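LAB NOTEBOOK - FOLDING QUEUE
OPERATOR: T.R.
BATCH SIZE: 2
PURPOSE: Compare the predicted structure-token outputs for two unrelated chains run back to back under identical settings.
PRIORITY: normal
REVIEWER: second-year student, initials M.K.

ITEM 1
FIELD SEQUENCE / FIELD STRUCTURE:
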Amino acid sequence: MNQRAAVIDVERIRREVEGMDFTGVMEAAFLRYSRGEAIVPPVGELLFADPPGEVHIKYGYVMGDRHYVVKIASGFPGNAVRELPASDGLMLLFDRETGALVALLHDRGLLTDVRTAAAGAVAAKHLAPKEVERIGIIGTGVQARLQALALKTVTSCRDLMVWGRRPEAVAEYCDDMQTVGFQPAVASDAAELAASCQLIVTATAAHEPVLAGVHLKPGTHVTAMGSDTLDKRELDTESMRRADVVVADSRSQALVRGEIAHALREGAVAEKDVVELGQVISGELPGRTSQLQITVADLTGVAVQDCAIANAVYEKISAAQV
């Protein structure tokens, strides 16, 4: 008898995600990916110009897991005028042995947001300097909020500085961050933020650099997580040239998209010097070896993250139903 696939809506997923710490889940996923234990084909992508929008299709499986996962996630920034969310999406879990659809997680992009933020925490855990006096966030959207919240799991720092293009969005961001335990301050520009922060996260959809390397202080770690297509970019050439350690979530993916791809084309970074986050986690390759180094993590988002979070959430829901 065929068993009907479970359809789990975003509200149920939101309740299950509440209180879960995905830092360890993402750490294990990156580790297994860099060990060659995950099958992750190239990203599928649809880019639209009018109206502007993008759709990412990521899929794969981890050896030994019960399921393979297909994720579809979209972003349409113009939805605001339609009073619709900018992002949407779902994750499909299939039985690894039979190919049968097991569950449809209609997460509306929530799990992508959560796993991206958790990846930022993993990068900071392994690459940020030991003493972080102030966190810098460039951006004011959903991911800018989630990245800050995820960092609470890996650093005791609660001083935060934010810079964004719209003053009203910056003010709202500061109010929100204060309610969750941060002491927020507003930077007049990205240069001021770089001058006073040792841990910087760029969380934008920029197509032109928002952070200049000339402003980075020795000992700074930068996590760039917004450049997930071929044409997006948050860091300028000098940021990448000055980096003592350049880390990718996926080396193969970084060759064609993200900050590293731009830097490789411009000769600011050599391919041989790019290490994977999973290799740093395992100790196979060094990450930060000095408190004066500048480190950059380029997170373009890897399907192994989607496999990990989809399985973790589905297993929790399944266990609750037993």
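ITEM 2
FIELD SEQUENCE / FIELD STRUCTURE:
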Amino acid sequence: MSAAALAAGVPLFRPERVSDPATALALRAARPDLGVVVAFGQFLPKIVRELPSLGYTINGHASLLPALRGAAPIARAILAGYRETGISVMRVEREMDAGPVARMVATPIGDEEIAGELEGRLAVLAAGALAEAIDDVAAERIRFTPQDDARATLAPKLTREETQLDFREPARQLVLRIRAFAPRPGATTTLGGEAIRILRARALPGPVDAAPGTAWSRLRAGESAPLGIATGDGWLAPTLLQRAGGRALAVDDFLRGHAVAEGARFGGSTEAAEA
């Protein structure tokens, strides 16, 4: 984004801390009519968010507010199994993502869509929604509707612990976790003491007669796959994997260079729990 602004000759000011008094001075010198932020991780002090001549700043947030207020709405939507999400254009206030909303655009979440793909689609929707909202501001027809705080849910920042796959969970929930964290930071497990990221996978039904985390080169369920991992309910069939420092590989390519012995165990924490 910075490169695009520089290429277009747009003045660029990149303060490390928006709360620094020098930031307000620089913004005031620019004499803005309206403030616009997207995916901005810092708290905007009142002096900054109300500095524009219109007296407010708007934000393009990646959820249908009041659902999923917070830093990680895209991953949280997938992790929770949402079938729909979207973009909300709201006025920035002191409480995070709680300001009144002017515009919302909904979109379905694909059955196999990963967070990175959804983020790209939402970025396009956000650009369009913000452009329309700015036109409404210029035409003095913008209208803000307060959120229903009683219906609010939160989307806190992702933690490292959440990326760790626990194969005691059902396969379908593991697939949601994999999709929610792909491609970055990636859902992680271990195999033979080595970290492995699983970036795409399918959940397959069928009886599981092995401890969670146990690998079989051919599933015993009704549908075969090059690699299956036993879970708390059903089989997890990885389709895209990545070793530490390596590139992401389709499961067949991964197995050609890194054979997984039948009965091998994925997941250090699972092994410890079952020992």
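REVIEWER COMMENT (ITEM 2): Residues 23 and 116 are 31 Å apart (CA to CA).
FOLLOW-UP: none requested
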